[in-house]
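Open question from group meeting: does this chain pack into something compact, or does most of it stay loose? Before anyone orders reagents, we agreed to write out a predicted structure and look at it together. Recording both the input and the output here so the notebook holds the full record.
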Amino acid sequence: NMGYQDGRDRWMEVQCEKNGVMPPGRIGHTVVVNDKGIVYLWGGVNENLERGSKYLDDFYRYNFEKKEWEQVELKPAGRPEEKPCGRAFHSAVMHDGCMLIFGGCNGRGRFHDIFSINGETGVCKLIAAKGEVPSTRYCHSAVVHDGKMIIFGGKCGGRNSNKRLADMYAFDFAKGEWSIIEVTGDVPSSRSAHTAVVYFNKMLMFGGRDADGKCCEDLYEFCFTTSEWRRTNHGACNQLFMRARHSVVVHNDRLITFAGWNGKKKLNDMFQYCLDSQTFQTVHDSDENDPRLPCRRECHTSVVVGNTMLLFGGRFRGLFMNDICEFGLDVMSLKDFCRAYVVEHAQYIDWTDTKKYGLPEDLITYLDMYNMRGLSWKQRQEVEKKRQEAKALRAANLLF
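Structure tokens returned:
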């Protein structure tokens, strides 16, 4: 099983000034990774006392293997307005080899347009979107599932406003069309500066700031097949989720969270949440005196390249950072690999057949947990009920 008891020693700051190119420090930027492991960075904001806020429209490529940045000039596909203006706190996803930018804000206003940027050529274009177009927003979340970009929440007022959203929209890439997602269940409160990630057929969302500006301490699961929200309760461990402006990645069935702001102070802690067993592990606590750790920060980004989590940027005590730090993630364990193989070949291997395979009950449960990873809460309950009935039947057969 994945264990990060030595988590502090897994961090490494990357020296990547070989060719003299380094993006300026920033917050509210977006970073994505293509299928070849090339990292793309666009936008954000930084500021100083002389000129105030500067909203950025620069685009960079980062070669993970060579540890080198390269700035790429953006070229509009047609009209000049097809090049996005500088902005921050937008969202970005990868689709069809391009970085897709949605929403965001700058000193002049808020946005709800979609731009695509070809990371190889630098060609950018405005995507014509029809249908039920979402309102302007920033500090929202965006994920990709089944050919659609799914956005949730965000902020819709000014910088000092507490106007936040709890709506959900889907943009169909093939149709170029927006639609509202009608949801049921434990619908989350309105929020911004939260995070959302996809795990098989579910979206996991947590944290952020609510309509009162307080940090949320809840974890929600959204099932794409049923459009149902469910809030999960983990007792005292919910305190770990109480943060905003943090970063989250998913790797080998683990949700890994780093840093952010908890309403009182900036953080540089890390914890992991195992998505099948629903258990927690603290990787390391916040500690600004440990030179092995990246400094406390908020509004940074983290992405996964292979078996490495890549951290870039953020802000702490007025400093807008442009550092890159790597955190070494575990490769899939032999136990998890064997489990995935057995589950994916379920049509040939019925692991619940104790007469044929003789697996112990705890191993059957372990396989069942992984098999149910993409199901909704209600579907998992139904499967669990059938499993318990089968267990009782097996026990009854042993009596005769």
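Observations to bring back to the group:
The chain has a mean pLDDT of 89.
The two ends are 38 Å apart (CA to CA).
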